[in-house]
Sequence to fold (480 residues):
Amino acid sequence: MLDQSTRAAILRLHDRGSGLGARAIASALGISRGAVKKVLKSGNDAVPSLHRAELADPHRDAILGLYAACKGNLVRVHEELIATGAKLSYQALTAFCRRNEIGHEPPLPAGQYEFEPGVEMQHDTSPHCATIGGRDTPVQSASLVLGYSRMNFFQGYPRFTRFECKIFLTEAFEYLGGACARGVIDNTHVVVASGTGREMVPVPEMAAFADRFGFKFVAHEVGDADRSGKVERKFHDIENNFLSGRTFTDWNQFNAEARVWCDKSNAAYRKHLHASPRELFAVERTRLRALPAHVPEVYLLHQRIVDSEGFVNVQRNRYSVPWRLIGRPLEVRESKARIEVYQGPRCVAAHARSIDLVDARIIDPAHRPPRGERVFTRGANSPEQKRLRERAPQITEYVALLQKRGHASLRATRTLIRMLDEYPRDALFAAIEEATRYGMTDLDRLERMVLRGILHDFFRPPHNDGSEPHHDKHDEDPDE
Fold:
């Protein structure tokens, strides 16, 4: 078939008025006279389209119906067509669907995003697998790429929540020396509170974090992954370069080597940039939003009560605190590297944060009682019992009875101290004297005995006729 330029040449030669016929034109162009005659008969240089019958044409309606029923699986469509007696190869079926745009959309042209220095940075995460501590471990790789210079920073975490997101971005901004005006993300729930794309509304916590560093989060439209292609491309390098053949002892070594790898990668020459990211960054760095004068440490706040063994639980790991704080409510601050325990404004314990250990017990020997001394002594040297004997030496015999019967626990001692504070001592000592005489160690029953002893002194029941009770001499106030 003659192409369009040859057909145009035939028409030009024929229109010159030089008397060139089909034979002369065919000889000049090196083509057949029949082809020249067909072009002259058509009178235009448009190439006619060929309409050839296809084997799948008679089955077009059946293919459309089966394509919907088989949920777009052309293998199943072909199997069903063969079952109905159609003589059609799988290749002929896929070519027919492609030419008729059945389940196939022509690719759209790819665009290109160019940014001025300091305008945009792109952040995203991707799951990978690395050998950490001798076993294959899932890793959430977080990466940040500057749109102009392509400077890259990435770290790995066992999980990626808002806490890890703020830790990563803070380290990235410190590594780069600032932040761009716009931070492009996908529609992740870590940052997004509602909406997608242009309608995205960030979580107030993350919006406040962005304001601290002078930038704003922007989400690309759903399905428009090319909008963040610069950061997406780096995950291929992380998977096939950084993680290839490397093993790590722990998460700290992983992130330390990741930082070294970023330094090396950023210094490498890029053909499409005609420079290295480090060289382009020399221009972009002056356009970044400067870091605040003080960058506060990112930490997660927990409220914990010290358990009976002297530990607080954080992310399934247990950290020791001074044993005298057992049962006390404390504030725990979890940062990237440390666990700090506060009692009011004072830090009472600090530990290195365990990332990859689960159900571990991290103990500081200084938090345990002296060797040979139990935390709660049931004997005569208990601090609570010393205080009890000093306040009420009259009940020493009863305390000895409790110790003999095995009931002199910390709770029992504190119950006696409370009763000393709440009840008249005469009634309490009388009840304790009677309990000692009969060997009774039930403190709930002892308290009921005290209440019965003071019933008529504080609660005078009226007579049946509703009149006030008669006051005898023993009820009169001795001062009157």
